[in-house]
TrEMBL record, chain A:
Residues 355-582 form the Origin recognition complex subunit 3 insertion domain. This is Origin recognition complex subunit 3. The lineage of its organism: Eukaryota, Metazoa, Chordata, Craniata, Vertebrata. Transmembrane segments: none annotated. The keyword ATP-binding does not apply. Residues 595-670 form the Origin recognition complex subunit 3 winged helix C-terminal domain. GO terms for cellular component: DNA replication preinitiation complex; nuclear origin of replication recognition complex; nuclear pre-replicative complex. It comes from the Eukaryota. GO terms for biological process: DNA replication initiation. Keywords: DNA replication, DNA-binding, Nucleus, Phosphoprotein. PANTHER family: ORIGIN RECOGNITION COMPLEX SUBUNIT 3.
From TrEMBL, chain B:
InterPro entries: AAA_16, ORC5, ORC5_C, ORC5_lid, P-loop_NTPase. The keyword Nucleus applies. This is Origin recognition complex subunit 5. It is found in: Nucleus. GO terms for biological process: DNA replication initiation. Belongs to the ORC5 family. The keyword ATP-binding applies. Keywords: ATP-binding, DNA replication, Nucleotide-binding, Nucleus. Component of the origin recognition complex (ORC) that binds origins of replication. DNA-binding is ATP-dependent. The specific DNA sequences that define origins of replication have not been identified yet. ORC is required to assemble the pre-replication complex necessary to initiate DNA replication. GO terms for molecular function: ATP binding; DNA replication origin binding. Residues 86-229 form the Orc1-like AAA ATPase domain. Gene3D superfamilies: P-loop containing nucleotide triphosphate hydrolases. Residues 376-505 form the Origin recognition complex subunit 5 C-terminal domain.
Length: 699, 509
């Protein structure tokens, strides 16, 4: 079917373009999209990618758990304490006060889901089976909120609207009230104590009357309608004697949100305690440490890509979840677009697949820019070998892969050392966070930058104890990695020498003091003073004390380490295998611009509709295009001001070229609705209401 | 058909035996005032209370006196006495209520409306009477009744058992309720007056408009000895429906006086200390707080919070119980500090106690409002600043602030009259999305692409309630927003991004 598609679009509200091939599509799995007919190892790459993704996921979960452990444990402790009937102040019964935990989570709302999930699990495992979590969206009215709570607790549907006809509900119709919940709670707890007397004993751990609290978690406190919340709290407070409620408010902004939402009459019914979770920047730092600054993890991001991802995090959402999603996306994109990414896996596996490279892939390796650079540095004979002999390329490739892995292994410990040395310097010349240092290291030669120079300058004036402490920290880092043993040895040697310096340096400084003391008593004119000061200056530079000598040696040593190990990744041959560097694609996909895509769709309808007949040359306007596109293109041809009548005429001309019959009035109507649409999209702004012929176009 | 005439309960009120001299007075008042408007009745009750207080002041032994005077035929005497003891400072109200109720088998006034401020003991007095005298009653909190069906259900199940309530059809109407009630009460007619107590009755106004008038004359409708007692914090004038209705008997619960507060608060003294010590503590506490807070519940909370601090010198052995002055010196600064946060409930009692323990010297109180600081993404901060500027600057001044080549505009003759008043006094004004974005692009220092995440940040600011959307949620075309943060907040935010927001605010030119 190759007729011109019907494009009376706006009047109909949708486009229908049938696909050119009527062939039924085969069902393809997820992996199928990665597999092209043209390359043979697509499934391998998909497998590697999936495996890597799994490790990413488990790692992030582990990190999240570790980070949240403290606050979650204290929350559980709080609930346990109140579940047992707060014993610290039982001389005064706190009638009708509901214990409430205000959990500060930060504004990165997407990340909260994970925290709440682990909180729910923790509470259900260790404190009480009665945990309910509610979302603001589902609870527009008190009725719905109560229903939600009852449903989750009692595990079956409860009729809210009494008009709803429901046969099962007729049998055991529970009314949607908290008093019904009270009844249910009584029977359940009675059963609990009968069935598991020993279990409950172990839970309560004492002779206190056992009562399992009912925990209600308000996931997004700010979004709740305050009237709903107030009513719910008032209702619950009526039943605190029979039903030990505990609330948890998940608050994104600040604790004062509670005061803004709840009046005194309600907040006086709560006994609020505030819990703070870790800030999202700390969370990101630990994720970064685990996933990106880790030699075990073969997939790497180039500096540009890191900048895009971190930029999205810092400028837009503060969401670690989205950061990990971005990482996942770049991983998928890398493994899909780079056929050689099959080598991006653990060392042994990579060497194995390097041995069995196909001819096509060997050719691809030859075309890698980094490999070409490598070839250029070789002897002419070797160059010929590399360009002609496939087997030789495979061997070299294995060697290069080994080198690459070794480079990564050495890179990260040294990076951490440098960071620990420079992170305490004033004004943070090399960045406050290790990610900034990492980005500048893999981007360019660090030692050529000004920031590095100023950092070394600052290191050169470090006091002894500070220097020793910093070096000790470095030694700790190196010790924990168990590589670079010779570096570690040298470091410890330096530390030992610095400490042995104790007596000498103090003696020396006192000697200096005596000299300056003598100077003070001499009468000097200005010229002489200048001279003596200059002299002093030159003497000091000439005669460094042993500590200063040693210090400069240490700095030299650090500098040499940086030059040796922190070379930019782009210089490493075969870096394209591991490094994903198309930041443009990433930005386009993750940070979308709706307006640009609308403009693209309007000016190039083929781009989205994929219909051959819509392909046009740059300057022409095809009458086959959707009328919307025609109007858009015509309006682009006008200047800043548009004469509406001319515009209409042009539109009618183009349209009538397509259709023979004269349906002028219909076209006019269509044109009118299109104009309105444009105004709505802010492409057009009406300039003068009285004289409707002129309209200004605003971009 | 209506056989509950006014005469019947009038009779009841009059025939109920006199209980003490002033009860006679009260009844005389009632009897004489019945034909007049209920409003006056209420006023009279207040007057009566006042007179009574004047009368009692010299004797100052109200409890003993009341226990003697409080006698009502038809109710066991010792229960009444214990009731009067359990309700200190509410003897007048108790006696009046009992007089209103009459003997158990007598008809009472169809509806009574009790009002008074929060924590004046309205529900407590009424429910204590009901429980102690074992009267048939249904106590319903109107907050709970999201539909009138729930109210009917609770009333019926309280009077006739859950089986009767189960007979209610789904989504029952008022007539269903009346029919069922009649049917049930014909089976088991009331031997005693049945009471329906509706707490937080102001919520009834949001329910079906016919519900309140019907409940007010329920006695006539169901032809049974039933009385509806409405409890509310607001006055009856705010309840009266347009169409008119049966006027209930109005009854005011006055606020507690200082002496009464002392008496009540002294009740819950600590078991390990003498009541005298606790009473003196309460006196000190009220001396500090009475000028700002008369809410009994809040005072109680404060009393509990600070008592351990008060006892600290005693525990350490630095002072004896008789050294009131020393104890006062010790507690006074703490109470002054607690004064800053009265009503806020910023710290829970447990946290407060911990703080008091940890405290060394004058450490600042780590209260809820102390961490009002919010971490926001970079562009969100600028969006918020732009929203603030859009909310508090007149739209006509945007040219002056955000255009490079603006002419000099004088503040005085440039604006209309109403715009001359400070915008910060008038509160935030709504602004369209376009204006927000225009200001945003001009305040943010780098070039920002109008990406989807910028727009999603606006909506997330709305969910965080830092912005609020004006008009309907479903208005997609050009949504309007308001900025709902304070000047202090925006100053703190703009300081973190190095933006001088004051320079851009019209009010501070």
């Amino acid at each position: 079917m190759s007729e011109i598609p019907l494009t009376s679009s706006v009047s109909k509200g949708c486009f229908v373009f049938k696909s050119a091939s009527k062939k039924r599509k085969r069902h393809v799995g997820v992996g199928g999209y990665l597999v092209d007919d043209s390359d043979e190892n697509g499934s391998d790459r998909f497998r590697i990618c999936q495996k890597l993704w799994e490790t990413v996921q488990t790692n992030t979960e582990v990190i999240q758990d570790q980070l949240n452990k403290k606050v979650l444990d204290s929350l559980a402790e709080f609930i346990k304490k109140h579940g047992l009937g707060c014993s610290s102040d039982n001389w005064r019964q706190r009638a009708r006060e509901t214990p409430t935990a205000a959990l500060m989570l930060g504004v990165n709302v997407p990340d909260h889901a994970m925290t709440f999930r682990s909180l729910c699990n923790l509470l259900q495992d260790s404190v009480t089976p009665f945990v309910v979590s509610v979302h603001a969206k589902e609870c527009a009215a008190v009725k719905l909120l109560i229903q939600k709570v009852l449903e989750q607790l009692m595990g079956r549907g409860v009729s809210v609207d009494e008009e709803q006809e429901d046969d099962t509900a007729l049998l055991q119709r529970t009314q949607c009230t908290i008093s019904a919940l009270c009844q249910w709670y009584k029977t359940v707890t009675k059963k609990c104590t009968q069935v598991f007397p020993q279990r409950t004993e172990s839970l309560t751990n004492s002779d206190l009357p056992q009562s399992l609290p009912v925990v209600v978690i308000f996931k997004d406190f700010e979004a709740f309608n305050s009237q709903v919340l107030q009513d719910f709290i008032l209702i619950c407070s009526r039943y605190t004697q029979e039903l030990p409620f505990i609330f948890i408010f998940g608050i994104a902004t600040s604790p004062s949100a509670i005061q803004h939402r709840l009046p005194h009459s309600v907040s006086s019914l709560l006994c609020i305690e505030v819990f703070h979770s870790l800030s999202c920047t700390q969370h990101l730092a630990s994720v970064f440490d685990k996933l990106i600054l880790n030699s075990q993890f073969p997939f790497k991001l180039s500096s540009r890509v890191i900048q895009v991802l971190v930029g999205i995090f810092l400028y837009h959402d503060f969401s670690v979840q989205n950061f990990v999603k971005g990482l996942q996306f770049s991983m998928l994109e890398h493994f899909k677009s780079q056929p050689l990414s099959m080598l991006c896996c653990q060392k042994q596996e990579a060497l194995l697949s390097a041995k069995t490279l196909s001819k096509k892939n060997v050719e691809r390796i030859r075309h890698l820019p980094s490999f070409m650079r490598y070839v250029e540095t070789q002897e002419p004979q070797e160059q010929v070998q590399l360009l002609t002999n496939d087997e030789h390329v495979k061997e070299v490739c294995q060697q290069l892969l080994k080198n690459l892995h070794k480079y990564h292994k050495n890179y990260y410990p040294i990076l951490q050392c440098l960071h620990s040395l420079t992170s305490s310097l004033p004004k943070f010349p090399l960045g406050k966070h290790i990610r900034e240092l990492h980005v500048s290291c893999i981007e360019k030669n660090l030692w050529e930058t000004e920031e590095y120079d100023s950092a070394l300058q600052l290191l050169r004036i470090l006091a002894k104890d500070e220097l020793v402490a910093a070096l000790r920290k470095c030694a700790e880092i190196l010790k924990s990695t168990k590589i670079l043993q010779n570096v570690l040895q040298q470091l410890e040697d330096f530390i030992g020498r610095l400490e042995a310096l104790e007596g000498v340096s103090s003696e020396d400084s006192s000697g200096n003091g005596i000299i300056s003391g003598k100077m003070e008593y001499q009468r000097t004119d200005l010229f002489q003073l200048q001279k003596t000061l200059l002299e002093k200056e030159s003497r000091r530079t000439k005669r460094m004390n042993p500590f200063e000598v040693l210090r400069s040696q240490v700095i030299e040593f650090i500098d040499s380490l940086v030059r040796e190990y922190l070379t930019p990744a782009e210089l490493q041959p075969l870096n394209e295998v591991c490094y994903y560097n198309s930041s443009g694609v990433l930005r386009q996909r993750l940070n979308v611009t709706p307006r640009t895509s609308i403009q693209a769709a309007l000016s190039h309808p083929f781009y989205y509709l994929q219909n051959e007949s819509l392909k046009t040359d740059a300057g022409t306007i095809s009458s086959a295009a959707p009328d919307l596109c025609i109007v858009y293109k015509l309006h682009l041809e006008c200047g800043r001001l548009i004469n509406l009548y001319d515009w209409l005429e042009a539109f009618l001309t183009v349209m009538s070229a397509a259709e023979d019959q004269d349906t002028n009035s219909e076209e006019c109507g269509k044109y009118d609705s299109l104009k309105q649409l444009f105004q709505r999209w802010n492409f057009l702004v009406s300039l003068n209401q009285q004289n409707r012929r002129l309209t200004m176009w605003q971009d | 058909m209506v056989s509950t005439p006014l005469s019947k309960w009038k009779l009841a009120a009059i025939t109920s035996a006199p209980c003490g001299a002033y009860m006679n007075y009260a009844e005389g008042l009632m009897a004489s005032n019945i034909p007049t408007s209920p409003q006056e009745t209420a006023v009279d009750f207040q007057e009566m209370g006042l007179q009574d207080k004047l009368l009692r002041k010299p004797t100052n032994q109200s409890i003993t006196r009341m226990s003697v005077t409080l006698q009502c035929p038809g109710y066991p005497e010792d229960t009444l006495r214990s009731l009067a003891e359990r309700l200190p400072c509410r003897e007048t109200q108790l006696a009046t209520l009992l007089a209103l109720m009459g003997q158990p088998d007598q008809y009472s006034y169809p509806s009574v409306f009790i009002y008074g401020h929060r924590a004046t003991g309205k529900s407590h007095v009424v429910l204590s009477i009901m429980k102690d005298l074992e009267l048939p009653h249904a106590s319903v909190d109107c907050v709970e009744c999201v539909s009138s069906g729930l109210l009917f259900h609770q009333v019926l199940s309280a009077f006739f058992g859950p089986d009767a309530a189960a007979l209610l059809p789904r989504c029952p109407s008022l007539s269903d309720f009346v029919r069922l009630y009649k049917q049930m009460s014909s089976n088991s007619p009331a031997t005693q007056t049945r009471y329906i107590i509706l707490d937080r009755a102001e919520r009834m106004r949001d329910m079906d408009f016919s519900l309140l008038p019907a409940l007010l004359r329920l006695q006539e409708l169901v032809n049974d000895n039933v009385t509806v007692i409405l409890l509310s914090e607001i006055v009856w004038e705010k309840f009266r429906p347009n169409t008119g209705c049966f006027e209930p008997l109005l009854f005011h619960f006055p606020d507690y006086s200082k002496a009464e507060l002392v008496q009540i608060l002294s009740w819950d003294h600590h078991p390990s200390y003498t009541p005298e010590l606790y009473a003196s503590y309460i006196n000190i506490l009220l001396g500090v707080f009475f000028s700002v807070c008369r809410d009994l519940r809040e005072l109680r909370h404060l009393a509990v919070l600070n008592f351990s601090k008060f006892c600290e010198p005693l525990e350490k052995g630095e002072a004896k119980e008789s050294d009131i002055h020393k104890l006062w010196k010790n507690i006074e600064p703490h109470l002054q500090r607690a004064m800053q946060t009265v009503y806020l409930r910023e710290v829970s009692s447990v946290q407060w106690e911990q703080q008091q323990m940890d405290e060394k010297e004058a450490t600042t109180l780590r209260v809820l409002s102390a961490h009002a600081h919010i971490e926001l993404p970079y562009y969100s901060k600028f969006l918020l600043i732009a929203a603030y500027l859009a909310s508090f600057n007149p739209a006509r001044t945007d040219r002056r602030f955000f255009l490079k080549s603006h002419g000099k505009i004088r503040k005085t003759n440039f604006l209309k009259k109403h715009e001359k008043t400070s915008n910060h006094l008038l509160g935030p004004k709504p602004f369209p999305l376009d204006r927000l974005m225009a200001i945003f692009y001009s305040v943010v220092d780098s070039r920002v692409a109008p990406t989807a995440s910028i727009f999603s940040q606006i909506s997330s600011l709305v969910t965080l309630q830092l912005l609020s959307q004006v008009g309907h949620d479903d208005q997609l075309d050009s949504p309007k927003y308001k900025c709902s943060v304070s000047l202090d907040f925006i100053l703190a935010i703009s300081r973190t991004v190095g933006f001088d927001v004051v320079k851009y605010l019209y009010d501070f030119l």
